[in-house]
Amino acid sequence: ITESDRDHWSFRPLVRPDVPAVKSLAGARSPIDCFITARLEDQELAFMPEADRRTLLRRVAFDITGLPPLAAEVKAFVADDAPDAFERMVDRMLASPAYGERWSQHWLDLARFAFCTCRLVLLSLL
Description:
Layout: H1 3-6, H2 31-42, H3 53-65, H4 71-79, H5 85-95, H6 97-125
Helix pairs in contact: 3-5
């Protein structure tokens, strides 16, 4: 490894950046939100209003499982007023077989691509 190789970002030690100062903390729940808010303020934009519980569940369900939530799941989540309702719902979805099925699709696509590429290489050698 040369000295110029050591300048690559992957060889640099991790440094915790300072949380930027922002004009408005509306919508900020964590330090990460301050980074987003600072970028939005630079572009004279603001956070969108928070989604209702039904919309939030639908977005998360599609992201995690690729499927819409069941009517019973929607009803249970909307009725659940516990402070950790969202976290528990996400944990349930991550533990579901649908999560594995959704993400295995990406791996299968890669495997199929690799197989087809190897097959083309072998055929070109004949």
